Amino acid sequence: MKWSSHACFEDYLCQNVPHGNAFRYLYCNARSLKSELKFEQLKLRAFEIKPDIILIAETWFKEGDSNFFVLDGYCLFESHRTVKRGGGIGIYVRLGIISSLSVIIETSVSILQLKIRNLSRTEHVVLVYKPPNVTCDELLSCLESVLLSVKEIIFIFGDFNLNLLDSNECPNNNRDLISSFNLIFVRSELPTRGNSLIDHVIKNTYSEDSIELHVIQDDFSDHSWLLLERTSVKTVQLQQTGKYLNYSLLEDNFKNSPLSISNDIVDPELCANLLSAYLEDATNKSTITYIYSRGGVSGLPWVTKSYLNLRKRKDNWYASRKRYPFNPGVLQSYKSCANLERKMRRK
Q1: Confidence (pTM)
Q2: Pairwise CA distance, residues 251 & 26, whole Å
Q3: What are the angstrom distances between the C-alpha of 203 and each of 147, 181, 185, 339?
């Protein structure tokens, strides 16, 4: 995990070339998004950075306000207070990303959880806002109810009002609870408001993607922006070598071998040794070494898509044969597939 600090968005844009395959999350505590100037700034940042998901804490929205803060190209999921002023959280998701609302908690702590489909995987995005007067135990109790139901990749963003730069505010028992759910802080070691590090990103260990966190200063709010870029890391399949014997080639090589046993050689052992040597030479010439991976993709030209499909059908019939050992139709289908697969390997 890498992190960097930028004095402004222009500094970030000058130093970083956008990654075409990066998935971007842009987070900030807005301290009210209801200002027309702030919303115009948000539009500008969305146009420049082109984030996939925008997470805003402290929107200060009330009932019906979200209708006036529509971001082109995004759909908005939000939760707001019904009694007191302030608070409120919202997540803008780029159109085209399959997303659904999973959890809304609007008590002393505000939590919004989305389930999204990203890079052919199901994952969860959670936005949290904990007011300063709420204890860490209350926060962790609310988070625990969310985390117990999640078994996939999860990213948690938010203003926790929990200063990681002060050990008194974040005792070890709270860190232990976070780690008990296989969660880790994606830390920048830089303050996000004044001298405090209170805006955090937390992830679980299921994701092996390359992650880069940027802390960006701006006049949008007295909180820094957090821009998280994820780049999918392709799994490199372990390459293995194998050999197969081409029987047709073996026959030709053995016929063309310089086999010459004189009539005057009557020693059976010597004849056997000569035959063995020629057979071994013909076998070596007829053996093809190839490279294959655990994914079943072979370096052999004859291993075509139809062959792999046949192998899959044979395996399926074998599993059916185990389940129904006395079914003659299943047994016959398995034998037919096995014979076809064997013939293709011997060609």
Answers
A1: 0.66
A2: 67
A3: 11, 10, 7, 50
Enclosing H/E stretch for 212:
strand 210-216
At 176-192, the pLDDT tens digits run: 556 667 788 887 778 89
Q: Tell me how crowded residue 317 is: count the other CB atoms within 10 A of its CB.
A: 19
Structure tokens at 246: 């081409």
Which CATH number is correct for 2-231, 3.40.50.300, 3.40.50.720, 3.60.10.10, 3.30.1330.10? 3.60.10.10
Q: Edge-to-edge, what's the strand order for the sheet holding 53-57?
A: 2-6, 210-216, 225-231, 22-29, 53-57, 89-94, 74-79
Indicate the DSSP class of residue 63: T
Neighbours of 77 (CB within 10 A): 19
Residue 236 has pLDDT above 60, yes or no: no
Start-end of H helices in the chain: 9-15, 36-49, 136-147, 172-180, 247-255, 268-286, 305-323, 328-346
Give the pLDDT confidence of 213-231 residue by residue, as tens digits.
999 988 999 999 999 988 8
In this prediction, residue 156 carries a pLDDT of 94
